[in-house]
Amino acid sequence: MRIRTADPASLALMPSSDYIALVDVNSFYASAERAFNPSLEGIPVVVLSNNDGCVVTRSAEAKALGIPMGEPWFKLKHLASDAIPRGKRLVALSSNYELYGDLSSRVMELLGRYSAWVEVYSIDEAFLGVNGTPVQLRQLGRTMKDAVRRHVGVPVCVGIATTKGLAKLANKLAKHNPDFAGVCHWESIPEEVRDGLMSRLSVVELWGVATRLTKRLNAMGIHTILI
Ligand SMILES: [Mg+2]
User: Fold this and answer.
1) pTM for this one?
2) Residue 137 · residue 127 · CB < 8 Å
3) Residues 65-79: pLDDT tens digits?
């Protein structure tokens, strides 16, 4: 297995690939906790920062409760009250970075089976060089998703496109649109649908575009990803 980090010098060494797959674990810390404690499946879970200060990860159910990222724990304690029935009651866990690091290594090692180059981008996401027809690429995405779920126990979404930025965008679509079932190959989406999706996404959703740049783009009359 070859794992390369985000080193620009390594780019020249990468075997050529027509496509880039971004594989990203959903709600990583919460999913990692669930991998070891299945009773946490389907209920709102948050993982707290060091010394249980504030929320660093929310499960989908916790997001649905409207809990913001970074919310201090003392403001949420009432949601974890025993008076609330289990299933609706918020479960808060102290972070366990050793566990997350271990699971991350297992995910990355497994992904190394599917590509000659894997660029680990963060603890829970990696870019992979991939090739194939649209059907093969979608199948590869599903295979990787199923393998990570089966062998490591955490859910991932896969976005596949010709650039890292579009792979990020495809991954976001895979995560937020149930129609994709967790795998989105950008070019498999009909062009008019892609345009519709992009026209509904704010530029702030673009990789590398932060709030400040968004304000500047908006001032120039650029509001959505579609230009
Ligand atoms: Mg993630």
Assistant:
1) 0.83
2) no
3) 999 999 999 999 999
